[in-house]
Amino acid sequence: MAMRVSLLLGLLLAASAASARVRLSGGAKAENKLRRFIEQDARLKARLHEATRREEFYLAEARESDLRDAVSDAPLGDALRAGLEKTAGDKRRGLIETLPGMRVLPSGAVCPTVAACPVPDLALDVADAEHLPDSLRRLVRPWMVLQQARGSDIELASIDGPGDAALSVKLKDLDAQPLLINVSPRLLGGFKVWFERPLVLAALYGRERDAVMRSAR
User: Cα separation of 147 and 208, whole Å?
Assistant: First the structure.
């Protein structure tokens, strides 16, 4: 009997972990729930850890093979290449951020209201793993604010399985497929955090935002 109860409890816990998700609208409470979900969801944390592990592997491989060729056309040329090979930590992060497309995420809230957010970010280049949670929140927030303005909400769920998809964003009360956010390590260090189907999502956001703005006049 005790074994059956233990087995049933294990199955229930596994099912709960597999279906972990959160619904968000907007405002301070939603921001806190978004932050807690991204920082505490076990499956998402494992996904980001795996991306970080792969980045470290790529860097080790690059040092031995393609690094010289890959950065030969970058700013500072040989000096940058030598710096990447010899530095670590904050100094190395600073060098990575000089590579094309590798920019630091600006501080402060992004898209606090739908009126202040005409175009959402659909992809970000992130120089360091510690900024991955911030980048995920930055990509999710415009859709959360849009749904709040529409009187609806979003549903977040972490993703498991092959590929780089890490987070699903479902838009309630909209006839749209869930939005998928990928976290992809780059060969020279850093990560690309990006939505699938960016052109489709840009059109969807623009259409729904225009509708919200018209109704507010």
Answer: 9
Helix/strand/coil percent split, the chain, to 5 = 50, 15, 35
**DSSP character for 140?**
H
Distance CA 131, CA 114 (A): 24
Paired strand residues for 126: 191
CA 152 to centroid of chain Cα atoms: 22
Task: Please give the chain's pLDDT, 217 residues, in tens.
Answer: 555 544 444 444 444 444 478 999 878 899 999 999 999 999 999 999 999 999 999 988 887 765 455 555 545 455 555 555 556 665 555 555 555 445 455 555 688 899 999 999 999 999 999 999 999 999 999 999 999 999 999 999 999 989 999 999 999 999 999 999 999 999 889 999 999 999 999 999 999 999 999 998 8
Contact 13, 7 (CB under 8 A): no
Q: pTM for this structure?
A: 0.75
For CA atoms 178, 209, 193, 69, the dihedral sign is positive
